[in-house]
Amino acid sequence: MDDLGDLVDVNTLAVALISAGGVLGGALGGAVLSQRAVRAQVAEQNRRADREREEGRAEQALQAKRDLYAHLNTAARAYRVAARDAVEAAARGERVDPGLLDGAKEAWAEQYSQAQMALTNDVLQIASALNRSLGVGYSAVKQLPSSPQTDKAYQRARTWFSGPLSDGVYLLRVVLRHDLGVEVDPHFEQTRIQMVAALDSARASLADALAAERRQTV
After folding, report:
1. Rounded distance, CA 130 to CA 173, Å?
2. CA distances from 24 to 6, 17, 64, 161 (A)
3. In this structure, are residues 210 and 151 in contact, taking their beta carbons and an 8 Å threshold?
4. What is the DSSP letter of 146?
5. Considering Cα of 74, then 77, then 78, then 79, what sign does the dihedral take?
6. Can you give the pTM of this predicted structure?
7. Nearest to residue 82, comparing CAs of 65, 56, 101?
8. In terms of Cα–Cα distance, which of 197, 193, 19, 159 is closest to 83?
9. Res 29: pLDDT
10. Cβ-contact 125, 133 below 8 angstroms
11. How far apart are CA 80 and CA 18, in angstroms?
């Protein structure tokens, strides 16, 4: 009987140990699975946070680009309008405040300088062509008082600011909108090339006329 009792005790102990082991193993297994689930959750949260930060940076960069383009476009339009108004005021015999035109010129120069560091090549080509054209227009305004043919000089300036330069400012606005994806025209590339060529040709013609006029007044 003692041997049988001992055998029962051993079996009971074995069952108890097996049961305890199963409970402990289950607990450990559950803990491992729980840790894996936590790690997976943390990893997903980190990935989500990374995506949100990247999206935030992209949105900030896009907004900065929009702001830069808006300021550049505004400065170009203000410069052209100030020059055109100076021509019209002078033609009417009114006193022209040179500070208005010079202020618009400086505002454009500042925006253009900043934009040069951020513009894509296509946009920079337009901005550079417009910058040269605005500069020639400024010279045309400043040269009006010394022109030997006043009527011709005023008409030349009017034509420049209402025609080629107006088209140049418009082209800048359109190319900026294309670069931002706001405006899409599958034929714009060809139009852009043609308009830049026309602007450069008109600018060169005006520059030659101004240079010839200066030689006459020397």
Report:
1. 11
2. 26, 10, 59, 88
3. no
4. G
5. positive
6. 0.75
7. 101
8. 159
9. 62
10. no
11. 92
Structure confidence by residue, pLDDT tens digits, 14-57:
445 445 455 555 565 666 667 777 777 767 667 776 666 665 66
Instruction: Quote the DSSP letter at residue 149.
Output: S
Instruction: Provide the H-helix boundaries in the chain.
Output: 2-91, 98-115, 121-143, 150-162, 164-180, 188-217
CA 106 to chain CA mean position, Å = 21
From the list 43, 81, 73, the residue with the least C-alpha distance to 173 is 73
- pLDDT tens digits, one per residue of 109-157: 999 999 998 888 889 999 999 999 999 999 999 999 989 888 999 999 9
In sequence order, the 6+-apart residues with CB closer than 8 A to the CB of 70 are none
> Which tokens hold the place of 103?
């202020």
Name the token pair of 25. 């193993």
In angstroms, how far is CA 121 from the centroid of its own chain? 12
The total number of residues shown for the chain amounts to 218
Please give the C-alpha separations between residue 11 and each of 17, 21, 47, 110, in angstroms, as whole numbers: 10, 15, 53, 92
Cα-based torsion angle of the residue sequence 42, 48, 49, 50 in order, rounded to the nearest 10 degrees = 110
Please write the tens of the pLDDT for every residue from 1-13: 455 455 445 556 4
Of 124, 139, 42, 130, nearest in space to 83 by CA: 139
Report d(CA 71, CA 67) in Å as an integer. Answer: 6
